[in-house]
Structure formats: C-alpha cells, structure tokens
Amino acid sequence: MPETILVIGSNGQIGTELVAELRRINGGSNVIACDIKEPDYDTLNAGPFEFSDVLKKENLKALFQKYRPTQVYLLAALLSAVGEQKPKMAWDLNMNGLFNVLDLAIEFQVKKVYWPSSIAVFGPHSPQFNTPQYCVMDPNTVYGFSKLAGERWCEYYFNKYGLDIRSIRYPGLIGWKAAPGGGTTDYAVHIFHEALQKGTYESFLSADTALPMMYMNDAIRATIQLMDAPAEQLTIRSSYNLGGISFTPDTLAAEIRKHIPDFKISYSDHDLRQAIADSWPKSIDDSQAQKDWGWEIEYDLAGMTRDMLQNLKDIKISN
Ligand SMILES: NC(=O)c1ccc[n+]([C@@H]2O[C@H](COP(=O)([O-])OP(=O)(O)OC[C@H]3O[C@@H](n4cnc5c(N)ncnc54)[C@H](O)[C@@H]3O)[C@@H](O)[C@H]2O)c1
C-alpha cells in the first residue's frame, strides 16, 4: 500500500525540498502539500496542494477527512529570530499548531507523524561542545522553549496514546532551493548568494561564532531515514540530537574563498541574533541517532560549499 503523506508548512526552506523528495519516492499524487502561502511552481504542479492554516482546526480536519493521510509532517512554525519579534504569535503557532496535528493524528489513526525540533532547545547552561542528548536545557528564546515543550508533548502523546511520532533536533540548515525563514543561522545561506552576486557579505554573526549546521541534502535524508526506521529501534520519542558540521562565519568564508578568491566578509555589530547564537551549542553529540537508526553524515564543509556554489551558479545560468 502506498503511503499518503500530508506535509503542513510545505512551502518553506525545508518543505520545498522535503516535498520534492517524498514525491520522488512515493509518487506525486500521494504527497499533499499544504501551506498558507503560495507554493513555488514545482510544489504546485508535481502533486496536490491545499491552502490550509494549521491553527484553523476545522479546516485542517477537512484535509484529514479528504485525504486520510497515513503520514503527516508538520513543518509550520515561527523560527528563532522572527519568534523574538513576535513572541506570543510564535508560542501560539508552535504549540497550538502541534496540538491540532497531534489530536487529528489520533482521531484519524495516522500511522506516523514527523515534527522537527531544533538545537534551540539548549540554552546558556547546556554544555557548549559536543552537547549530549540529555543535559541541562534552559532555552531563553520563545522558539527554544516552544520546541522544548513540544518535545515533551510528543513524548507524552507517544507514551499516553501510542502515537508513533518521530523528531530530530535540526542544526542550522543550508540549502539552495528555498530561502530560509528567519532563523539565527540564515547567514550561512545568504553568504553564498551574496558571494556569487556581489563578492562581499556582511555577516550578522561575529567571525568566531561556531554553530552546528547541516547541508539540506543530509537533513532530508536523515528525516526520511528516521521515518523509515523500525519503531522498535527508536529509543527517543522526544527528539534526536543531530550534529552535522560545526563552523564559524570566518571558516565558511575561507572555504568560499577557495572557489571565489576575491570574496570578502565583514561583520556587523549589535545584531540581536548574536545573543541567540551565543546561547546555543557549538557542536552536538548525535551518537544516539547513529546507534538507533544508523545515521551518518555525508556532506562536510568542503562538500557542502562546493555543491551550494555549483547549484546556485547553475540556477543563475538557467535564468
Ligand atoms: N531551517 C532550519 O535551519 C531549521 C532548523 C531547526 C529546526 N527547523 C524546524 O523545521 C521546521 C520547518 O522549518 P523551515 O526552515 O522550513 O521554516 P520556514 O519558515 O522556511 O517554513 C515554514 C512554512 O510554514 C508555513 N506556515 C506558517 N504559518 C502557517 C500556518 N499557520 N499554517 C500552515 N502553514 C504555515 C510558512 O508559510 C512556511 O512556508 C520548523 O518547525 C522549524 O522550527 C528548521
């Protein structure tokens, strides 16, 4: 039996790539994309698309009734930087959107649910290097504590109602197909566009701000690998740490310079995102994901940089 997959928040940085990959694997008509914003050409034309707001439970329920999804991916959220500008809205969307999906998943007997968490669940008192799965967690952004609360609810729905929900704490994600949605790690996407267009980039994070990051190809592969893993192998029902590659703006700029020798980076002072970045881990221990579902990273800094620049150059030529 083919899966019927509903992706809520399909038109953002992750959804754009995840929907394409899920459709490649499962067939276009079996993956229903859904968002409140206009989809891009591929998302609209390669399979069903529905406008729906995750906060409007009755409208969302109509989608569950219409498609009877066997799997649901919930990607709609306000991210870290935007969340600090609109804290109540971030809490409302990140929590009530999750409740609506969890409750409908139970009502409609959805087989598996995917909901992403983030390294933002860690805070200033969490260990900064090789941050373990279990440690002090004192996030100080609305985004961070909405994700931490969400993780606790996911585990609760698994234990209490038997809902098969799976989750990854993504590091900052870097991809070329869609723009990032207002997070603290967005610099690591913008830098590539501006390196190619202008040869310069002003980073809103300081030169030595190390953060865990991951190339989107790896993140999409991890997500689908976790969703395909046998349930009995999974020992974590809150959210799995995922490490990726750890680097600073300075190191990334040096890597870009290997391809664009004249590229210059400068640094702005007093950006609010610096304080958020300073409260997050610098690197992550993802040994539990390796052990439970065989996670292995493919793209290192050099491989990611090469692929990003090549793909962005190809788009420019084809435009
Ligand atoms: N991108 C990253 O680096 C990153 C890192 C860690 C975790 N995450 C998590 O992954 C998920 C997806 O992130 P993303 O980067 O694709 O975000 P994004 O902001 O790029 O995309 C989110 C999508 O949700 C849609 N949306 C917003 N409100 C909605 C609503 N009420 N109903 C339906 N759709 C709505 C938006 O229109 C947008 O298309 C989020 O939960 C985010 O917290 C992302």
Topology:
Elements: E1 5-8, H1 13-26, E2 31-35, H2 41-45, E3 49-51, H3 57-67, E4 71-74, H4 80-85, H5 87-107, E5 112-114, E6 117-118, H6 142-161, E7 165-166, E8 168-170, E9 172-174, H7 187-197, E10 200-203, E11 211-215, H8 216-228, E12 240-241, E13 245-247, H9 249-257, E14 264-267, H10 272-278, H11 287-293, H12 301-318
Parallel strand pairs: 1-2, 1-4, 2-3, 4-5, 5-7, 6-8, 8-12, 9-11, 10-14
Antiparallel strand pairs: 11-13
The structure holds nicotinamide-adenine-dinucleotide.
What can you see in these coordinates?
It is a single chain. By secondary structure, the protein is an alpha/beta fold. It has twelve helices and 14 strands. The strands form four sheets. It has a six-stranded parallel beta sheet, with helices on both faces. It has a three-stranded parallel beta sheet with strand order 6-8-12. Strands 9-11-13 form a three-stranded mixed beta sheet. The chain has two domains: 5-170, Rossmann fold (3-Layer(aba) Sandwich), CATH 3.40.50; 173-213 and 244-318, Rossmann fold, CATH 3.40.50.720. The radius of gyration is 19 Å and the shape is globular.
Name the CATH superfamily classification of the largest domain: NAD(P)-binding Rossmann-like Domain
Bound molecules: nicotinamide-adenine-dinucleotide
- Runs in which pLDDT lies below 50 for 5 or more consecutive residues are none
Elements, N to C (H/E): EHEHEHEHHEEHEEEHEEHEEHEHHH
Q: What's the alpha carbon Rg, rounded to whole Å?
A: 19 Å
